[in-house]
Design goal:
With about 270 residues, the chain is mainly beta. It has one domain: Porin (Beta Barrel), CATH 2.40.160. The chain contains two helices and 15 strands. The protein is globular and about 50 Å long. About 30% of the residues are buried.
Amino acid sequence: MKTRTLIAAALVGAVAMGVLATQAHAEDSAADLAKKLSNPVAALISVPLQLNYDEKIGPTKGGERWLLNIQPVVPITLNSNWNLISRTILPVMSQQDIYLGAGSQSGIGDIVQSVFFSPKAPTAGGWIWGAGPVFLLPTGTDDLLSAQKWGAGPTAVLLKQEHGWTYGALANHIWSFAGDSARADISTTFLQPFVSYTTPTAWTYAANTESTYDWENKQWTVPINLFVSKVIKISNQLISVGGGVRSWADGPDSSPHGLGLRLVVTLLFPK
């Protein structure tokens, strides 16, 4: 399939999934919803569609990549005290000249599925947390878009929200345990410290890193992201729209260099 067809199909699927999940209500203000979006374990059904563009990739810095991450977040009530939060990352990408002589590739990458068990109420000190397992699923449609490995490990998030500010960190570690024996083993740590400020008019200004440490190759990949977003309503649909820039502070030759771009549209389905 051509890249545009893949991306269009993915977008339609994400929208349909969100619409079927629940219908939007207006109890929460736009600012409240914006604050919930800054909380990875908030009790809010959302479907972020995150489009990234990076260039200067590979040893010759001649590659470029378009990456659409479809990231549905679905909270499930377990009992009066606990929620289960499902966070999925489904990548759809198109890239060219990433690897010498490999040309271009388009398709779906490997899914990362996280599950957080999170208390409904913050701690006495106001901290919000969640923890659980994370899984890597080898769903890539091209050998160069997939690690061809099954992986699993722990994940956790800790944050605090006060006076419009949200600050905290999300982390996970994935080890490979099965898959193509000819492909490299995986042992990677993901660290995402974040800080954001939400105004009473539902503007959010945020910064984070989405750093990965590859224990097999002893190499950091460190993008620094700055972005802004706004919760709005189109017809009866609440959405958050935003964008920003990314700078690659560290990484191997195979990672991007210089600046990258990010656009995000998030469908919101408050209970």
